[in-house]
């Protein structure tokens, strides 16, 4: 039997039309100093902010992984956002082996 939830409950639970989509990414970095990493990371954040995206991330001078989604409360990352971020990462000289995931539900991983 199909689970029927009210629009209000779907909104509170971020389900259905209120689901928030995002994507994972990972890449290798060829950075030697903390200053170089900070400069790269600032450029990365600038691109995210321009697209109204936010991320959770972890890494060091050799690799970076994370999850990117919209900064808007009920907004979602799009296929265009995914393609733009992949293109930007590939354009950076200090980045190699870029891997992008597909769009998934940021709250439930579906």
Could you walk me through the main structural features you see in this protein, from its secondary elements to its overall organization?
The protein is α+β, with helices and mostly antiparallel strands and 110 residues long. The chain has one domain: Alpha-Beta Plaits. Helix content is 33%, strand content 29%. It has helices at 7-12, 34-50, 79-91; strands at 21-29, 53-59, 63-70, 95-100, 104-105. Strands 1, 2, 3, 4 and 5 form a five-stranded antiparallel β-sheet that branches. A hairpin with a 3-residue loop joins strand 2 and strand 3 (63-70). It is elongated. The protein starts with 6 loop residues before the first helix and ends in a 5-residue tail after the last strand.
Please render the helix and strand layout as text.
Blueprint: H1 7-12, E1 21-29, H2 34-50, E2 53-59, E3 63-70, H3 79-91, E4 95-100, E5 104-105
Antiparallel strand pairs: 1-3, 1-4, 1-5, 2-3
Separation of the first and last Cα atoms: 20 Å
CATH class: Alpha Beta
> Superfamily at the CATH H level?
Ribosomal protein S6/Translation elongation factor EF1B
- Give the beta-strand count: 5
Give me the CATH fold name.
Alpha-Beta Plaits
Summarize the helix and strand pattern as letters.
HEHEEHEE
CATH architecture assignment: 2-Layer Sandwich
Task: Give a quick account of the main beta sheet: strands, pairing sense, barrel closure.
Answer: 5 strands, antiparallel
Provide the gyration radius in Å: 16 Å
Q: Number of domains in the coordinates? A: 1
Give average pLDDT, whole number. Answer: 92
Compute the number of helices: 3
Helix content: 25-40%
Note the beta-strand portion: 25-35%
Uncertain runs are none
Q: Per the principal axes of the C-alpha atoms, what is the gross shape?
A: elongated
- Secondary structure class reads alpha+beta
